[in-house]
Design a protein that fits this description.
The chain has 65 residues and is α+β, with helices and mostly antiparallel strands. The protein is built from one helix and four strands, in the order H-E-E-E-E. Strand 3 and strand 4 form a beta hairpin. The chain is globular and about 30 Å long. It has a two-stranded antiparallel sheet. The chain has a two-stranded antiparallel sheet with strand order 3-4. The chain has a domain of 25 residues. Bound molecules: zinc ion.
């Protein structure tokens, strides 16, 4: 399906802040499935990063809520 293919491609490309387009490493944010509030280290603006459930597969039990 087109949607699945698109998700895979997006995960391989560098992620960028939608405001300043600076490349952001999401590893530092400890992303979980669903919506994650990201604060750009560069311009300090916040935005929502949506993570597909498959993105966190293989990392069970690591959520801290
Ligand atoms: Zn930014």
């Amino acid at each position: 399906m087109m949607k699945k293919l698109k998700e895979q491609i997006m995960q391989e490309f560098p992620h960028r802040c939608p405001y300043c387009e600076k490349t952001i490493t999401y590893e530092q944010f400890n992303l979980k499935a669903g919506e994650n509030e990201i604060k750009c280290p560069s311009c300090k603006k916040k935005y929502i990063k949506v993570v597909a459930p498959s993105f966190t597969e293989g990392d069970h039990g690591s959520r801290s809520e």
